[in-house]
Structures are given as structure tokens and as C-alpha cells.
């Protein structure tokens, strides 16, 4: 007790500086976690969070039995999986390729150019996609000229949605995500490369046995985080990209929560769907982390 | 040393691939820029690659800047960026400083509070209802306050503050400096590159943000630029900017207006970008070091 008081009186100013941040986290992160109890209630705006009557698992059952459940789970999972397979390694590959470039000016220029799209807003990126992928847009124009095929209304075809989503993600993120791997490669002890050369390792073997092991710790951490967000794909981007014609492949848990909760004001139902997503995500994260701990010493906590 | 044939072949492929990647990255922006200043009639008739501007016509830019909705939205975005970033940096710097202290009792649980919030959240709906209950719905506060601190940025800043040599603080303390003075006079000036990166991250985040504004704001006079952009680019509503034109003349101009709006909304960021680029690696790297 005395220790607490002494600590407090000595560090008053430090605690005062911390206070706004703590209040912010309690209010905007922990009050919503507490408020997610409306998923088990019949929330009415008149009665508020606390006084609304309990409903049990009605809304969860309604969601699990609904036509949307399988579709949302499939779409969310597939988009995440394709991101993991195609988008996630793209930054690693770019970093490894850039590392093989000897000319500093060339390397610099490629970096400067490929980092840029990261700073362009999603609204603009999706706007460009609508423009380029329109029936009379530049992509169709080139396809028609090169292969003589019928123009495709890409943004209105459910079958194209995932491809477009992932490709544009790579376009926007490849440079930025390579930074962290480049930094990891730069941190590798140069004597390891020297030793590999003396042992007669060519460039390919150096990449395989020096560069890749060097970026493995960072890759593991990022992979765990990626798995933890398997269910939270880019909701904001999908909201901009999709339309009722493409819901079949485009509608994900996050966009569904937005439509049900904010557009249709079914608060308890959408809160239940959101909670389902949060819980599964958290479990995935914990499992991925436990797995990483087992096979290597790299993990989050 | 002589290079093997395979090695040379790899270099050729590698350089070619990287050049193609750079071109694919650059082309969409160039296409938009060239189209925005080309003759509208040309843009509509030619749907292929545009490698240089065809003619020069700034009509689209004039129409964009004459549109009161866009200038108002621009102004709103500036308010959100400046006020939002100021609050972000103030809270993040103070919080990061407190969390970087070694001999303070309650910092471990506070750190846990923050890290846990990165991995588990109550979701969109409880937050939406909370903002309503706080009376912030349809006010500027709703797009600034709920994102006042970003846990990643806070941790990056904390890590960089921890790297400042303790001896500097101790001598300042002997001279009677309190924690506020140490933060603003010693730690912040020494961590300037990281503070610059974090400021950029926050500012770009506000500049590009549209979702909170969409769900929290109803009054059109409060909307940020990105929401107006969304109407123009994705819902194709450029009509009110061309009421003086006949139906047939509208189509080509509508398209150049779209391009001009993209330029107007993206240029400020692209101008800022080269100056701060050298700090990126530093910021991202510190973020990657755990604990």
C-alpha cells in the first residue's frame, strides 16, 4: 500500500500524462466491449445498453440458421485465404528481388515509386478501378485489341470480384509491405554472406540460406497477425467496390454488419454477428501464436 | 570476378520485372493526370493508353474549384486533418512518454490494456451506439475523437523514446526539470524522425478517411473530401457541376471532372511524400521490434 502511494506521489505527472490515453481506451475500446452485451439482449434505443431485456442466444441462432451465414463465412474466408497466398508473399518477393539489385539509384527509384500507392486513399483507388475496368475502360480496350474478346463488365461480375480485390491490394501494398523485409535483410550480418560465398554458395543459395532465414522472425510475426485478422478483410474497400450484383462473392461479415446494423438499425442482430467475428478472430490469433511458439521462438507475447 | 551466365540472365529478368512493376504502379496516376488536362472530346473518344496530354484544357479544374461542395469539403478535410492530427500527436506523445518510464508501477497493466484492444474489439455496432449516446453524432468530434490514439503508433513512439539515453534525462532532472519539460525539451527533439513519421501516418489517415464520416455525419456541410469524391467517382454524380451545359456536352466534361477531382484530392499527399520518404524505413522498422 505504501509502495503504491509513494510511487503515485513520485510519478504524479507521469500518471497525469497517461490519463487521457487511458480514458480514451476505456471509453472507446472497453465500453464497446462491455456494450457488446446487446448481442444477448433485445436492444431498444429508448431503454439503452443496460435496461434492454435479455434475449439469450436468439440472435446468434438467427444468424447461424440464416441463408447469409454460409455465404458470409465462405466469402470472408476465401478473400482472406487468397490474400494470404497471393498478397502476403508479394512484399517478401519484392524485398528479395530489390536486394539483388546492385545499382543504388535504381533500387531507390523502384522503392520510391512502389511505396506511393500506399498513400492514395481507398476511395481514389476504387474510383480508378471503376474507371479502368468499365466496359469501355482502358483494360477492356486493351483486351479487345489484343485478344479480340467481348468486353467484360468487371465490376458487375461476381466471378471477377475476388481477383480484382486481391490484384488491387497487391498493386497498392506490395511496395509498402516490402519495407519491413528490406529492413530485416539489411540487418543481416554481412559476414554470413561472406561465409556462404567462401563455401561456394551462388546467389540463389545465398538467398535460400542467408536472406530467407534472416527475414523469418519478422515473417512469422506478420503471419500470426495476418491469421488473427482472417475474418476482418478490408471491409471499407469492399463497401466501396461491391454492389448487389456482386454480393454473392463480395459480401463479407464486416459489410453485412454495416448493412444490418447501421442501414437497417437491427442493432442486436448485427452486434451478435460482429461479436461472432471478434471471438473467432481472437481464437485464431491465439492458436496461430501458440503454433508459432511451438515450432519456433518467434511469437507475439 | 566473372559472372556466370545464369547470374546475368537473372539480373536481366529482375531489372525487367522491377521496371514493369514500376510502370504498372505509375501508369494509373499518369493516365489520370494526362486525362485531366486533355481535351474532353479526345478523352471520351480514345479509350486506350494515354502517354502524354492531348491538348491542354483546364476547364475541369475550373469547374472543380467553382463547385461550392468541393471547396467546402476541402476545407472540412483540412479541419479534420489539422485538429485530428494535433490531438493524435499530443495524446500519443504523452502516452508514449509515460509508457516508456521504467520505474512507474502501473505501466504494465496499462500496456496490457492497450495491446489487448488491438486483438479484441466490441465491433462496429457498440461503438456506433456509444458515439450516439455521447451526443457526438453528426458533429465534427465524431470523426476526430473515436480515433484519437492508434495503438501501433503509440508503441512505435514508445520504443523510440526508450532508445533515448537515460543519462540525458537524469542530468535534466538534477537541474529540476519535470516530466513535461523532459518530454518536450529532450525526448521529442531527439526523436524527431519518428515523430515526423507518426505525424505523417496520422495526417494521411485523416486525409484519406471516409468511413467514420459516412456513418457518423448526416449534414452535407460537414462532409470531408473523400465522401464527395466517392459520390463523384463511384456514384457518378457530376451533374451539379455542369448545369450550364447541354445534355450531350456533359458526358465528356463529366469524365475530365472525375480526373481533375482525383488530382486535386491526391496531389497534397504526393507533394508531401518525397520529403518524408527517408523516414519511413525508420518508423516501420521500430514498429516491428516487439517489446
Give the ordered list of helices and strands of chain B: HHHHHHHHHHHHHH
Largest interface: A-B, 97 and 89 residues
**What is the typical, i.e. mean, pLDDT of chain B?**
86
Structural class of chain A: mainly alpha
Helix fraction of chain A by DSSP (H/I, runs of at least 4): over 70%
Large-scale geometry of chain A? globular
CATH topology of the largest domain in chain A: MetI-like fold
Specify Rg of chain B, calculated over alpha carbons. 25 Å
Low-confidence segments of chain A, ≥5 residues, pLDDT <50? Answer: none
- Tell me the helix content of chain B: over 70%
The largest sheet of chain B is: none
Characterise this structure.
The complex is a heterodimer of chains A (301) and B (291). Chain A is mostly helical. Chain A is built from 15 helices and no strands. Chain A has two domains: 1-56, no CATH class; 70-120 and 168-295, Orthogonal Bundle (MetI-like fold), CATH 1.10.3720.10. In chain B, α4 (68-100) packs across α13 and α8 runs antiparallel to α11. Chain B has two domains: 5-45; 66-288, MetI-like (MetI-like fold, Orthogonal Bundle), CATH 1.10.3720.10. The longest helix of chain B has 42 residues, at 247-288. Chain B is mainly α. The mean pLDDT of chain B is 86. Chains A and B meet through α1, α2, α5, α6 and α7 of A and α1, α4, α5, α6 and α10 of B.
What's the short version?
Chain A has 301 residues and is mostly helical.
Give structural attributes.
heterodimer, A: 301 residues, MetI-like fold, B: 291 residues, mainly alpha, 74% helix, 0% strand, globular
Write the layout of secondary structure elements.
The complex is a heterodimer of chains A (301) and B (291).
Chain A: H1 2-10, H2 12-35, H3 48-51, H4 58-65, H5 67-99, H6 104-115, H7 122-132, H8 138-147, H9 161-186, H10 190-198, H11 203-228, H12 235-241, H13 247-250, H14 253-263, H15 267-295
Helix pairs in contact in A: 4-15, 5-9, 5-11, 6-9, 7-12, 9-11, 10-11, 11-15, 14-15
Chain B: H1 5-37, H2 40-45, H3 59-66, H4 68-100, H5 107-119, H6 124-133, H7 141-144, H8 151-162, H9 166-174, H10 179-190, H11 192-208, H12 211-216, H13 225-233, H14 247-288
